[in-house]
Amino acid sequence: MEGIYAIWQRDITKFFRDRARLIGSFSMPILFLLIFGGGMSGTMEGLIGMGGEGMADDFNYVSFIFPGIVAMTLLMTSVFSSLSVIEDKNFGYMKEILVSPISRVNIAIGKMLGAATVATIQGIMLFLLIPLIGLSYPFISLIQVLPVMFLLACALSSFGLLIASLLKSTQGFQLIVQILVMPMIFLSGALFPVNNMPAWMDVIVKINPVTYGVDVMKKIMVDVESLSPMVQEAMGLNLSVFGRTVTIFEEILFIILFTVILILLATVSFRRANA
Predict the structure, then answer these.
(1) What region holds the ABC transmembrane type-2 domain (predicted)?
(2) Pairing, β 240-241 against β 244-245
(3) Residues 6 or more apart from 43 whose CB is under 8 A from it?
């Protein structure tokens, strides 16, 4: 536990000392919020309204994508925080950790928790935008969504950690991550419904951990029960796998299994790096 805490503390300290990183990480989520929220809200609400009179009265597109924007922040921060693994390799810090008595599992867990904590903090900071963009969520919903945010951040941090453990250059890491991150965002339901995708694309949607994290966050933050069934169907708020609607418990279980598997793979990678 001391080893995990030391690694976690180091990453948290680096985060708060890097103000440029703290501020710059909000640029992409806010840009997407402005573009999709401001540019597409009228179009999407208009399409929903075409389903019947009053259909769009109980639907706010910005409230629909805000949980997705938070998930996008978690994804980008979690994955790119793992870049520190490659930097630590280049500066020799990782070699010192690998030859220490700390187990490889604890190293992976410490790095994962550090990146996940940083991502969760930045996701929480986005809540400050809620009153500024005219949204309103129940306070209890914001509290309930915090564990889900941290769990999703752990899953995405383990994903970034595995990639970083396999690479030796920051340029290679950034290239691969850029290729993977954008499809994970767009094929998760964060910004638009993904319930009518082609079959091959639907497979990617269903194995994407962000899909389940976004769906859980929307179910907690957005009052889905108050929306009409047609609105829920149009916006893909009833995620189904093999024709069966998945529950929040099943979605959380998937995220946990995804995290455990990738942490174990990252541990194996760390062992090979020290071999």
Answers:
(1) 20-273
(2) antiparallel
(3) none
Mapping DSSP to helix (H, G, I), strand (E, B) and coil, where does residue 244 land?
Answer: strand
> Going by C-beta distance under 8 Å and a sequence separation of 6 or more, which residues neighbour residue 241?
206
Tell me the C-alpha distance between 118 and 60, whole Å: 29
Helix (H, G, I), strand (E, B) or coil at 127: helix
What is the pTM (predicted TM-score) of this model?
A: 0.85
- pLDDT per residue, tens digit, the chain (275 aa), is 777 777 788 778 877 777 666 666 667 777 777 776 666 665 555 555 544 444 444 567 788 888 888 998 898 888 888 777 777 776 666 666 666 667 777 878 888 888 899 889 888 988 988 888 888 888 999 999 999 999 999 999 999 888 888 877 778 888 888 888 888 888 888 887 787 778 888 888 899 999 999 999 988 888 766 666 666 666 667 788 877 888 889 999 999 999 999 988 888 876 665 54
What's the CA gap between 70 and 216, in Å, rounded? 12
- How is residue 129 written in tokens? 């935008």
Q: Give the start-to-end residue ranges of the domains of the chain.
A: 2-273
